[in-house]
Amino acid sequence: MDLLGFLIIGILAGWTAGLLLKGRGFGLIGDMIIGIIGAVIGGFLFRSLGFTAYGVIGSYVMAVIGALVLLFFVGLIKRTEV
After folding, report:
1. Mean pLDDT of 44-73
2. N or C: which end of the chain has fewer CB within 10 A?
3. How far apart are CA 69 and CA 17, in angstroms?
């Protein structure tokens, strides 16, 4: 996948994860960062569980799942900070 496609999927995945967990996105750059990190996490999780994702839709689903996991753990860390 070329860089532009990777960035677009990252933006969409971060935005979708933000909508699902927070009710809104994080802005263009925030969505992109969350989506790209989420894609890495999702790829690791999918490989660890023996799943594979093919094509644009598979990459998108994998990135959204990874971004949701990332945001969940960031939320846990934020709640425990005092």
Report:
1. 93
2. C
3. 9
